[in-house]
Amino acid sequence: MLTEGMFYDALRQGLWITVELSAPILSVALISGLVIGLFQALTSVQEMTLTFVPKLLAIGAVFWATMGFMTRTLLAYFDTTIVPLIAGS
User: Where does the UniProt entry say this protein principally localizes (predicted)?
Assistant: First the structure.
């Protein structure tokens, strides 16, 4: 029997896992955006692709590097929280 407390606990845990999984990608996007913005301000280069391409490459590299961690975390969450709730255990 699914109670309201169990539902909110699973929701809270899912939101926290979302924060954990998105933190590396968002932090790299922020840092690379700041570095590129500083470079553009110092050199007066205002090229639009200069902001997009390096940030995209950095995000892709971090995503590729953390894919295993993301997969293990999501599988553990589903195996320990979501599947038992669906099965009614």
Answer: membrane
Asked if residue 2 is part of any domain, the answer here is no
Residues of the chain with pLDDT > 90: what percent? 73
What pTM does this model have? Answer: 0.80
Q: Is residue 3 part of a domain?
A: no
Domain interval for residue 66: 25-87
Residue 62 lies in a domain: yes
Q: Which helix (H) or strand (E) holds 14?
A: helix 4-43
Compute the 3-state secondary structure of the chain and give helix, strand, coil in percent, each to the nearest 5.
Answer: 90, 0, 10
The string of pLDDT tens digits covering residues 16-45 is 999 999 999 999 999 999 999 999 889 888
Per-residue pLDDT at 88 exceeds 80: yes
Three-class SS state of 2: coil
Q: How many domains does the chain have?
A: 1
